[in-house]
C-alpha cells in the first residue's frame, strides 16, 4: 500500500528517494511570494543530496541570480556508506576529471559550490559550479558537514527518512533556517511536536493533499508493485509534508469556519449534520472528525485530525497537545476504564486496547464505543 511506503523505507533504511523539481518549486515559491528577499545574500546548504543530478541543486542553480543567493553548497553521501543494492555509476563529469579515482569516488561524499560567474560568460549557471571530494563520506553528522551547516544560513533538503528526528535536532543545534521534507506523522514525535507547539517550526506550503511522488534509482524499481510504482517511474507516498521555519502566506490564512449551530444545520458531513459533536468520555473536549467542521464559536478544547497542522494558523488557534502515549497522561486524558472496554468488546471491537490506556475514547450517538484516530487537541485563540 502506498501509505506504508515511508514506514517500509524507514525499516529497510532505504533512503533513496528523489524529489521532483516541481515540488521544490511549489514550496520555494510560497516563501518567495511572502518575502522576495528571503534568500538574498544568504548561504544555502543542500545536504544529503546528489548534486550531479539532484533537483534541489538544479533548482537553486537556476534561481541563483534571481534570488540574489550569496553561496550555494550542495553535498552528497558516499555510495559505500549508503549500503544500497544497486551498482555504482559515476557520472561523466567526474570520470573525465583528472581527480577521478573509482575508489575515492565510491568512498567519499562530494561537495559542489556556486558563488560567482567563474567562467566570465556573463551569467551564473551550472558551468560555474566547483566540485571536490569531501574528506569524509558526507554524513550530515560528521564534523566536516557540521562546519558547512554552521557556515550556512538556510538548510534545504529531503533528508534520509530513517534519520528525520536526528536531522531536525542537527538543524536546531545549528540554529538555522530550514525547509525539509518529512512524514506528517513525525508531528507525534515529542521533540518535533514541542518545536511546533512553540512556533519554532511549522508545516510548509506542502504537497497536494499530502501526496508526494518521488523518483527512484532504476534498480530499486523492481521492489515496488504496480499501483505503487506509477507508469512514469515515480513512487507515491502519502502523508508527506514540508517542515520549515521560513514564513509563508498559507500560515497566516485563517480557516473559514461555520458556527456550531450552522455546522449542525448545514455540514456536508453526515457524522455532524443534524447530530452535532461527540464529547470524549475521558477528556474534556469534543471530537471534530474533519478540519472544515471545526466550529468557529466553540470555546473549549477540540480534538482534530493530524492534517490540521497543514492549516494551522497560530493567530487563529492554540495547540494544546496530541493524544500520543508520550503526552496523554501529562494532558490529563484519563485511562479508558473497564466500563468502556467491556462495552467495546460487547460491540465486537477487536482493537488491542486495555483499560489502563489513555487513548481518547467516546461513545457514538448510538452508544457504540469508539476511539478516534490520531487527534491533535486545539483551542480557538
Ligand atoms: C530521501 S533521499 C533525498 C535525496 C535528495 N535530497 C532529493 O531530495 O532528491 C535522502 C538522501 O540522504 C542520503 N543519506 C542517508 N543517510 C545519510 C547521512 N547519514 N548523511 C547524509 N546523507 C545521508 C541518502 O543516501 C539519500 O540520497
Protein traits:
381 residues, alpha+beta, Rossmann fold, five-stranded mixed β-sheet, 17 strands, 19% strand, elongated, binds S-adenosylmethionine
Provide a short characterization of the protein structure.
With 381 residues, the protein is α+β, with helices and mostly antiparallel strands. It has helices at 5-11, 21-34, 55-62, 64-67, 79-82, 92-95, 102-107, 143-151, 164-174, 190-197, 260-266, 325-331, 338-346; strands at residues 43-49, 71-76, 110-114, 130-133, 154-157, 177-183, 202-203, 212-214, 235-237, 240-244, 278-279, 285-287, 301-305, 317-322, 362-363, 369-370, 375-380. It starts with a helix and ends with a strand.
**Strand adjacency order, main sheet:** 4-3-2-1-5-6-10-7
Kindly identify the CATH topology of the largest domain: Rossmann fold
User: What's the order of the H and E elements?
Assistant: HHEHHEHHHEEHEHEHEEEEHEEEEHHEEE
Q: How widely separated are the two ends? A: 39 Å
User: What is the gyration radius calculated from CA atoms?
Assistant: 24 Å
Our count of helices gives 13
Mean pLDDT: 92
Shape field: elongated
| Class based on secondary structure composition and strand pairing | alpha+beta
In percent, how much strand structure appears in the residues? 15-25%
Number of strands: 17
How many domains in all? 2
Ligands and ions found: S-adenosylmethionine
Q: For the report, how would you describe the main beta sheet?
A: 8 strands, mixed
The proportion of residues forming helix, as a percent range, comes to: 25-40%
CATH class of the largest domain: Alpha Beta
Please state the second-level CATH architecture of the largest domain: 3-Layer(aba) Sandwich
Q: Give the low-confidence spans.
A: none
